[in-house]
Amino acid sequence: MRKKTRFSLSRTLIYLSPILLLTACNLGGGGKGGDSTIKIDQVGGEFNLSKDLTLFVPSNAVDQEIEITVREIPSEEVNTLRQLPEDGESQLIAAFEILPHGQTFQIPVQIQIENIDYSENNLPLIYSLDLEDQSFQLAEIRTSYDRQSGDLILFLDHFSSYAAYLEEGYISPECQENPCRCEEISIEQSDAYNICSQDDCQVTESDVSVTFDACGGNTDHLLMREISPSCQPRMMISPDQEVIPVEGSTQVNVELGLSCAPFKNQDVFYSSNQLGQVDPIQTITDSAGKTETTFTAGEEPGTAEVTAEAFGSYYLLEITLNDESEYGKEKFYELEETTTIEIGNIQGTFEGSFNTCLGGFCVHDYQVRFDFVVDEIDWEAGSWTGTADVTQSGNVTTTWEDAHVENVNTPDFEGLEIFGNAFPETEELDLLSLAVVNVGGPDDFYGTFLIVADDGGGSFELFILGFPLEVKADLDVEGIIPFRFKVDGSDTPQSGAGSIFLPNEDGPTMPGTYTLTLEY
After folding, report:
1. How many CA atoms lie within 13 A of 76 on its CB side?
2. What pairs with residue 486 in β-bridges?
3. What torsion do the CA atoms of 358, 362, 364, 368 make, to the nearest 10 degrees?
4. Segment 69-121, tens digit of pLDDT
5. Measured CA distances, 101 to 160, 164, 188 (Å)
6. Which residues are CB-contacts of 236 (< 8 A; sequence separation ≥ 6)?
7. Which of 100, 207, 214, 240 is most open to solvent, judged by the fewest CB atoms within 10 Å of its CB?
8. Which of 11-20, 101-110, 446-455 has the lowest mean pLDDT?
9. What angle do CA 441, 445, 451 make, to 5 degrees?
10. What is the predicted pLDDT for the residue at 473?
11. Beta pairing, strands 276-279 & 282-284
12. Using 50, 70 and 90 to split pLDDT, how confident is the model at 10?
């Protein structure tokens, strides 16, 4: 029979250090390693695997005879898996592999590790090893510990590879106030949840429950978050818009992480060159490791730079008990990243195709194109100014009998001065201002054509199209609305149905379609 053991612990909130000191022990303590092979059957029994390692198999744990092998794992192999620094204070008790892997039992078997050199402020924890995949994480296992005899018992329902550690902790005054907390204990470990893994970096969370049997089964729950030493802080910075207009703005996004894991509650500081400014100049990352600021360009075009800086510290280990946290080793970092934003004048293109019949003539596939530049925006005054080059073309026919069309003229224009409304609340401009241009006279801006009588009875000249030209979007419930667009280009290209207003005509006279695009 397994000998009777008593268990006690001074406190359950244990200060786990990711820095481990591997000390030699009979099993896995730095020796060359050895194999023990035994056979077990339905009868069960007690089997000495080494000086300090004993296997207890209850009767009927297996339904047939099986052969098992226990291999000692040298501390060097465990050290490689966990990537331990050279210094440390936690103690490797034992490391071993039990074969065949995955062998299950109808009743849990027990592995007892004896003669542990115990310090009363330490708690034994068991880690699961995968030697093939080179992984190391807290095992899902139930254990019992007797600090007086120095015996640790592992209850196993299947075989795998394990490493047992005494993790550093501290003595709580609760032992003086509640002596039962220093008596028998049972330890329940959950399987470590892998938050993320990237290259050599691994971030895990685990639950450990410590039950004080002498305190009526009172249980403390510990949440442990561990970051492998190879994880390194990183920063990414990017603007929503890589190109913005003069006096335009864009959000600049920053994301901080510890390799693959979000880096929350970190201060980030911002600065920019003389072409603009950032606001706010300091933010804090959220639970996803993200934060942002806004860059606003000045009056000069060019390449703006926005720099984000973060410096502080973090902990390789965090243990939370009853909403109170303790921390392991503190590490410090400094990060700096810069992104660029191009600032330039807004350049836009409006293209439309329209058709109509008026009186005795019809305009077919009338094409008009405005290539415009916004030279200046006065948000305070609510206006903008610029220039436009206009091209136009189309076919004209007449509906009158015994007549034809001659001398169709659809002139192009360069450098037309345009202006319009600016809306600072939404950072929008409108194209209603294309209705107003400064040119010399009617002959300069009207397209013309002749309708000639086929019988030689005469002819007369008509205007096709000209300025003031009002190109507007489709009707809404209240009437005509102008084209409007955001200066950051986020709502372009726009496209849809529209109409052209001809001079001295009431109502939309030339329906068609349009497209509006922007660039810088």
Report:
1. 4
2. 428
3. -50
4. 888 888 877 877 765 443 445 678 889 988 888 888 999 999 999 877 655 55
5. 5, 18, 22
6. 254, 255, 337
7. 100
8. 11-20
9. 105
10. 44
11. unpaired
12. very low
Q: Which of 65, 90, 194 is nearest to 140 (CA)?
A: 194
The full DSSP string for 69-96 is EEEE--HHHHHHHHT--S---EEEEEEE
**Residue 481 contacts residue 422 (beta carbons within 8 Å):** no
pLDDT in tens, 117-160: 655 557 788 988 887 777 777 888 999 887 677 788 999 988 88
Task: Yes or no: say if 470 and 510 are a contact pair by the CB < 8 Å rule.
Answer: no
CA distances from 194 to 152, 205, 228, 440 (A): 27, 7, 12, 75
Residue 519's nearest CA partner among 360, 345, 353 is: 345
- How many C-beta atoms lie closer than 10 Å to residue 436's C-beta? 15
Strand partners, 469: none
Dihedral angle, C-alpha 126, 130, 135, 137, nearest 10 °: -20
Q: β-pairing, 90-99 with 20-21? A: parallel
Provide the CB-side half-sphere exposure for 188 (13 A, CA). Answer: 8
Residue 280, both tokens? 């706010």
Residue 78: predicted pLDDT: 81
What gap in Å lies between CA 109 and CA 118, rounded to an integer? 24
Q: How far, in Å, are 132, 158, 306 from residue 99 at the CA level? A: 14, 10, 58
3-state helix, strand, coil in the chain (%, to 5): 5, 60, 35
Per residue in 25-63, pLDDT tens?
334 443 334 578 889 999 999 998 877 889 999 999 999
- What's the half-sphere exposure (Cβ side, CA atoms, 13 Å) at 9? 27
| Cβ pair 112, 152 in contact under 8 A | yes
Q: Can you tell me the distance from the alpha carbon of 450 to that of 403, in angstroms, rounded to the nearest whole number?
A: 10
Beta bridge partners of 169: none
Backbone φ, ψ for residue 221 (5° rounding): -115, 125
Strand, helix or coil for residue 314: strand
